Amino acid sequence: MSLVTPAGAADRFWFDDATVHVADGAFRDQYGREVVLRGFNVSGTAKLAEYRGLPFASTADARSSAAAMRRLTGANSVRFLLTWAWIEPEPRRIDIAYLDKVAEQISAFTDQGIRVHLDFHQDLYSRYLFNRDSWYTGDGAPEWVVRAGGYPRESCGLCFHWGQNMKNNNAVTAATYDFWHNREVTTSAGPIRIRDEFLYAAGEALARVKSRLSADAFRLVVGVDPLNEPYAGRYDSGQDSIEWERDLLWPFHQQFRARMDQVGWADKPAFVEPLVFWNQNVDFFAEPGGFTDVPALGQRYVFNTHFYDGKAQSGVLMPGKASDGQYTGDFNKIRDRARALGTAGIVTEYGHPVDGNTSDKKSTVLKAMYQGLDSRLSGAQWWASAASSGPVLSGSQWHWDVNYDRHHELMNDNPNKVHTDGDAMNDEHFSAVHVDDNGTAALTVDERLVDRLFPRAVAGTTAAFTYEDRARDGSTVLTWNKLPDTMPAVRALVGTGQFGVLVWRSNGGTAPTELHLPASFAPGATTVVSSLGSVRGVPAYTGAESVAAAAEPGVTGVNRLLLSTRDSKLHFALVTNGAGSASLEAARAELAAWASATFGG
């Protein structure tokens, strides 16, 4: 075993420039490590006209936002939005200037060592379906596509959430239906088929973006989401949602995959989404789906889905707050579908309003969602049943909008409806960040919820992981994972501090297992108790060569724990910022006995 430390500029992100692919049902890098992608969507601003479909007003804003995200949350990945309307503003005319700005803003994140996956975004098909005085708006298809379609006047009726337009608004359902059925329409450039044209434009966009990215930046782009939140609009006579996924959605994803291959993206997976309603927890919206009647996806695709608690957001269907284990079933459903489809899973949108009617639930909902990403188990179950805990799910929270509460969006191009507050999109308030009056990026949620201990890369396979963030809900500290009474030394060591536990089976490789250390794990105040050695006061530790810590350039303090082993054994590590003075050896013995009894050798 050996200490792993940075060795110069080429290693400034400690193996983070490695290529990432799908293998053995997980994201893995070229060293065989299991990679967990965690971060945010950037951002809902891309859905607006304010900055012409870009997440940031300028590349400088993108760079400062990327640095703030890494500093405040330790994110190692973002989902980057772009839209058809801005790619192809007129038929067969690709806006190269827009795509060049997209590439510049992507590079702002890859320059920080943050991986990127692209998302071709749409909501309610297109903003151009909505009249100037509408309660709602959308994003996606260009105006000329809508104009050629000749759709009915939009109206959702008595809709209390913008998402109801997906099923209730005749203009939205008709246009969406036409997309999936590849309707031919007449345009100034001649007849075109709508879905074919989207695939053409997406391919042109991918080709241009790649050409404008450096080789180092492109290496950090991990894949592409063909289309955000797909749904049918309406079904053909006798067709159900399962058949729609099989006969229309899956062939579209295959066509998109082929288009990626044609334009130089063959080595990147397609992050394909099933029917958006497949895992809804509101019964009148939910429909069967999740690619249950398509072939195994394999390594060239990723099972990509979203999860929001519609009941909690309603303020009526779930009056109280979320609790321990509330979403384990929902996230396990995602894990199980990914495994059945033979690929990695990722949740590319999740979150809860940070302001407004149900924002009092945000701390508990977000804590429970991250708990569902981290483990198959509730906190109450974890220590007794940890052998069934893994794997850890990757995810990107909705969203990271440095323009939050500072927008100037003309809703549906109406100068009499200027939206400045929140996300400026359908009255949403989801951003985890805002910029204060001093121009400094600050979180809108408890930092303990989003700056989390998590395994960035595991040298082998994760057997179990948990993290007790002790997030605050007002003045209440939420503690859902309580250490067992059978571990008195561990309990004394942790005390009231935060703690995480990782158990993994090593692959014998040279690259280390890496965990992100939150800012709350201050230099000199972090304790590690592991099968590789124990230390109080990381990073001052200079003893055994199996544990080390390091800081990324531009980040204050130490934010990465490195665990190095070249064997092929089961290992464990408890990491805490607790201030207890209990014996490290006693704590290590308790954990070793637990690991042996729970996981075997």
From TrEMBL:
Keywords: Glycosidase, Hydrolase. Transmembrane segments: none annotated. Residues 30-384 form the Glycoside hydrolase family domain. It comes from the Bacteria. Belongs to the glycosyl hydrolase 5 (cellulase A) family. PANTHER family: ERGOSTERYL-BETA-GLUCOSIDASE (PTHR31308:SF5), PTHR31308. This is Cellulase family glycosylhydrolase.
